[in-house]
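User: Structure please.
Assistant: Input sequence and predicted structure:
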Amino acid sequence: MNESQAAIDRDVAAVGALSAVPVLLRIICESTGMGFAAVARVTDTSWTACAVHDQIAFGLRSGGQLDVSTTLCTEAREARRPIVIDDAGCDPIYRDHHTPRIYGIKSYVSVPIVFSNGDYFGNLCAIDPNPAAVSNERTLGMFNSFAELIARQLEDEEQVRSREQLHRATETALLDERATAELREQFIAVLGHDLRNPLAAVEATADLLTRRQEEDIVRIARRLKTSSRRMSRLIDDVLDFARGRLGSGMGVNLVETDSLGAALRDVVAESREAHVERAVIADIDIPRPVRCDEARVQQLLSNLIGNALTHGSADVPIEVESKIAGPWLVLSVRNGGQPIPEENLARVFEPFWRPLNSHRGGGLGLGLHICSQIVAAHGGRLEVRSTVDDGTTFTVWLPLDGGANPAAAVR
């Protein structure tokens, strides 16, 4: 690659255009406990941050540069292999190295990003001022998978840009959509397979820590369990979306159950436990059996409450209601706050769609899409209403017998 500043700026923009990169960097920090992760473009003479997730106020932003001679990426570039340090203070190789001393870091991971033709792009790296247990197969496997995913997507985007010069605008739009689909499918593969094992390890560690007597450790363990549950739901949503894309659709097992009310109350209780600072009011009255997939309806309610927690006003209680109305089970979740703009109402159930003003860390934009698929698989209907006075309400109608016509649902 041309190593001019213009080319570096182009590469920074190319990485910034990959919508999955911020999520990957956040997952790295959540999985390893490290506070800073970045995708860096590295040449013989420069080190440039292309994307950054910074929880430790390291102070480097996208486009920012470091003196390449002060980093360890030069060694990773020359060796074309990862560099992993649990604790620089006692590492036999790097305890006297200038990089940990200059930047005040203890733990460090740097994995080369290499294209399929062997060209070197840069590094996927993470640092933290505290030691971290990162020199293990699971963590290194996650970094390698993410680095390969970024390389493949950069190559795909470069190919798309080349084809744009040869094809008409409509053909270019089609190629862009295809490239986006490839990104999503590869990202799905990473989340669904490479993250399951490390996530299980995180959950097991949290379970062990909650049994300790120290109050501070228990509090940290509970926070860790909350993060693990959030990541698990993220993976479940992505895998459900993948099954739909592969043509198998949303799988449901419709059986008659008389415990749905208790199951939904469990979801509400879990949300309250995970968000003790928020008020969640529930009025759940299901006095008769319902033919449904109980686990999927729990997932439906969990996603709706999660959406309300993310986008609703923190000082307005979230209201959950479930009741029987004629041949329908009606389930609704309401939150206060700014209403959804009219032009966005028709798009909220689209996969991977999020409003431009949504805050970072709000997920992948799959939760409401999964909700719509669960409702459709039950033969039901899902609607949203949002006004300044009444807030935002998502309402679900599910046929009690699992076979009614959703077009006849009573409003």
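Residues 215-245 form the longest helix (31 residues).
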